[in-house]
Amino acid sequence: MSGTNVCVIIAARNAAETITTAITSALLEPEVSEIVVVDDASTDATEAMARATDDGSGRLLVLRLDVNRGPSFARNMAIRQSRAPLISILDADDFFLPGRFARLVASDDWELVADNIVFVEHASVRDVLSGRVAHFDADPTHLDVTQFIAGNISSRGARRGELGFLKPVMRRAMLEAHGLHYDEQLRLGEDYALYAEAMLKGARFKLIRSCGYCAIVRPNSLSGQHRTEDLRRLADADLRLLAQAGLATAHRPILRRHERHVRDKYRLRHFLDLKAANGLSSAMAFAFASPANLGAVAKGVTLDKLEPLRLALSSAPKGCEPSTRYLMPGTASAGGSA
Q1: Which position has the higher pLDDT, 109 or 223?
Q2: How confident is the model at residue 1 (pLDDT cuts 50, 70, 90)?
């Protein structure tokens, strides 16, 4: 297709150990014409490491914030600074696999297009870099908005695999036509909120199952940490989507379901926070303030108590979790694994 210039956006905070790999993986992609890194007030050498990765091609721009503003603010800032017609998000501790963009932008039937993600324990990164990744058939399909939102409702006990993890290439023209940007109130679920809003406005989201993005699983990852308040703000983002003019009636039930799912997580976390900070009486006052609070707290506390039993009855032996997994299942291509 024409116009395959891609801008890669990297919001980075305290990513000195990983930023070189992330930037290098983008520089190696011939479709990438710009890379904009925003150092979100790191306290380590992230900025210096990013600048040192410059290959002299003139494609890398490194910006720095002196006050931490969060990934949504950093990404919006980077998008404003860029010009390429296609925008791709890369987390600072992840990297692209070779040939990713050639596969993604091979057709024109999308406003967002994403591929499979391989999740890798940090100790196994070398295996991925050496090419040990499953080769899946592309098997292209288009997500509808109901599928996408439902795919962001997690199940207790299941390994996380929400579709909000997807890292699509997005058309700048689509974002500008609808006035879309990352919600800067969000530090959790900002990707989900942007993609859902785009799809509700008619954007086509194409999905292929071949793998081009490697996400590193770290116990101390910033993306794995969030405040109780972040859950409330994500639930409120669903309410804003529900309040949009012209929202199709068919889309309301799944948005309400996602909002309740996130809100119930918030209610349980808030109950536990109150109990730890102010004692059981304060927590119980919150629980009994409404039937919705009480239901969420009662269910959550019960499931927490049953969690050790669930783990004991689990068929997977402890310590035997695979070090590599894929966001979506796929059919092995003729080439198999590299």
Answers
A1: 109
A2: very low
Cα separation, 153 vs 145, in Å, equals 13
Task: Indicate whether 300 belongs to any domain.
Answer: yes
Q: For the chain, first and last CA: distance in Å?
A: 27
pTM: 0.90
Answer whether residue 122 is part of any domain: no
Q: What is the mean pLDDT of residues 78-86?
A: 97
Cα separation of 149 and 151, whole Å? 5
Distant-in-sequence, close-in-space partners of 279: CB < 8 Å, separation ≥ 6: none
Alpha-carbon distance of 337 to 154, in angstroms, equals 29
CB 114 within 8 Å of CB 166: yes
Q: Which two tokens stand for residue 198?
A: 């785009």
Question: Of the residues 93, 117, 145, which one is the last residue of a structural domain?
Answer: 93
Q: Kindly state whether residue 116 falls inside one of the protein's structural domains.
A: no
Regarding beta strands 6-12 and 32-40, do their DSSP bridges make them parallel or antiparallel, or are they unpaired? parallel
Give the distance, in angstroms, between the CA of residue 83 and the centroid of all CA atoms in the same chain: 23
Long-range contacts of 173-176 (CB under 8 A, 24+ apart): 173/85, 174/111, 174/112, 174/198, 174/203, 175/79, 175/87
Domain end call among 64, 93, 122: 93
- Cα separation, 269 vs 111, in Å, equals 36
Count structural domains, the chain.
Answer: 2
143: helix, strand or coil: strand
Q: Which residue has the tokens 């603010």?
A: 73
Its domain, for residue 22, covers 1-93
Asked if 332 contacts 136 with a C-beta cutoff of 8 angstroms, the reply is yes
